[in-house]
């Protein structure tokens, strides 16, 4: 099938102002460090005395002696920040990089993990803040949202329904996990945005494969609680399905990547660069091992950001372009997946994508909290 060229025109990232290294937790919660192997993070990623059963286990094995499971640092929201403030910064930077105004945007699609309001996504609130006149709606694929939103936006532009679609992705794990829950140690916050428009020649999205991740519905759960001021808040907890992450990782990766490559009409060997979401320190090594590709053909951002959910995919694209690892007309494969959501891969021919200035390079507000 021949598609009209539609793809990413610009990309921007936005991060909170607080950087936390592992020392913060070591000094503040020494008793949790001592008991780490009995806590949530260790239970989620553990072999429980059994030998490695698959490629995921094999790559996870070297990290099991580390209470942080390979996490080095993460960026978290301050009291003055929110997912909406991060989304607003990323959205305006993406527009500026594309040399567009908000009046040039026909549609905005927002994926927030998690939104600010209980029961409502961020789309209408962000649209009001940006002054958007056109359409805006939410899309939820949990941590696999980015490839699905890109697929949706590209299809709508290709169909002639909209000209320019602004996609905004955010993750605010620090607001839904308690700091004393060791699972929060491998989580961070952030936002990304990109503009989807018509492209040149044969650039843009060439093929996508998406499947649901119903097998992972028990990995996490949400409950409504009250904070100290009596306000309602959502709190996430790990469930009994963590083992399913290890058992299904290979299947989801293979089905989606092989399906997207076939849909694009190319081969694995023709892909110039691979961008996997990296929610764990060993995910990149797992993906390259399973697909049997050279690790130099991908990038690993986990040491910089920890697990920032669907924003990882946007950050991967940004950093790969910023570091000169992908160039115009390269074939690029992106993959993202999330519990109780979707796993999805897309193959695109990279265009002339404008990059906003990285916020952590330009901001003087960032501070280290030890």
TrEMBL record:
Entry EC no(s): 2.3.1.41
Top EC group: transferase
Gene3D superfamilies reported for this sequence: 3.40.47.10
Transmembrane segments annotated in the record for this chain: none
Keyword Transferase attributed: yes
InterPro entries per UniProt: ACP_syn_III_C (IPR013747), ACP_syn_III_N (IPR013751), Thiolase-like (IPR016039)
Domain (Beta-ketoacyl-[acyl-carrier-protein] synthase III N-terminal): residue spans on this chain: 141-210
Record keywords: Acyltransferase, Transferase
Biological process according to GO: fatty acid biosynthetic process; secondary metabolite biosynthetic process
Residues of the Beta-ketoacyl-[acyl-carrier-protein] synthase III C-terminal domain: 262-350
GO MF term list: 3-oxoacyl-[acyl-carrier-protein] synthase activity
Keyword Nuclease attributed: no
Name of the protein described by the UniProt record: 3-Oxoacyl-(Acyl-carrier-protein (ACP)) synthase III
